[in-house]
Specification:
mainly beta; 4-stranded mixed β-sheet; 2 helices
Length: 262
């Protein structure tokens, strides 16, 4: 039987061609000159490349042999799994966004990207990337899947999962600092950058404090702390004054260093 080109690893045993002919015995060879005999070729579990064999029919009744016949088939390569981020995050906004830009997934040359919300091992994607709604906070995230496909051969690769998370309030950006022993810092706000003017900083006594327990009074490096060399950590979050959403805590580390005696 003629074997149409197929993708590596996708031909099931019951789909393999029948390599027998009633009333004949088949002799298999690796070359058209029939110089090198080989066993009956298997089409299953073949790596991606072109294969060519040759066979001669022998009449089971007369023992007479016929001409040399070619038997060829092509196994096409399956694209590799894409290098995709496990998660991508957005700050809550007022519209839907195309996730492909932030995902930054690039197919191999000759392949196209396909997107889907299904994890099933089948070619069910669309070339159009999903538009994700970022008007609603979603810290659990929604799963999308992307894979690459060679449209010439029809072969497609494994799906990569991307979880899209929408944060209403991102962590503030902090900067650590080092001071000499004895130097206090009255207001640590200078070491923290808010997202924009719509946010206010909230300070906490410890990392385990509830989000709602933050205070707007800035933390400070006290005289008592400044007098003793060591590392001091301060916890700060930012609150979106429009939505009342509070971010996770960020850490400001102040290291007090002493002067070693000569």
């Amino acid at each position: 039987d003629e074997v149409k080109p197929f993708c590596e690893g996708t031909l099931a045993a019951n789909e393999a061609p029948t390599l027998t002919i009633d009333g004949y015995k088949l002799h298999w060879y690796e070359d058209a000159d029939t110089a090198k005999a080989t066993k009956e070729p298997s089409v299953i579990d073949k790596e991606a490349k072109e294969y060519e064999y040759f066979y001669v029919l022998e009449d089971s009744k007369t023992g007479c042999k016929g001409e040399v016949n070619p038997f060829a088939f092509t196994v096409n390569a399956v694209p590799e799994e894409l290098e995709a981020p496990d998660t991508i995050e957005y700050v809550k906004g007022v519209a839907s966004v195309d996730i492909s830009a932030k995902a930054g997934v690039v197919p191999a040359e000759g392949n196209k990207l396909f997107w889907t919300e299904s994890s099933a091992e089948k070619d069910d994607g669309s070339k159009t990337a999903p538009m994700h709604d970022i008007t609603v906070q979603d810290k659990v995230g929604k799963k999308y899947y992307v894979y690459q496909k060679n449209e010439l051969t029809g072969c497609f690769g494994p799906k990569s999962e991307i979880v899209v998370i929408v944060n209403d309030s991102p962590k503030p950006t902090t900067k650590d600092t080092v001071v000499c022993v004895g130097k206090t810092i009255a207001d640590l706000s200078s070491l923290v950058k808010k997202e924009n003017a719509d946010y206010e900083l909230l300070w906490y006594a410890s990392e385990s404090d509830a989000k709602e327990d933050g205070v707007t009074t800035p933390a400070s490096l006290t005289e008592e702390q400044a007098a003793t060399p060591g590392e001091y950590k301060f916890y700060v979050a930012q609150k979106n004054t429009d939505t009342e959403a509070i971010s996770e805590k960020a850490v400001v580390t102040v290291t007090v260093v002493g002067v070693d005696k000569p």
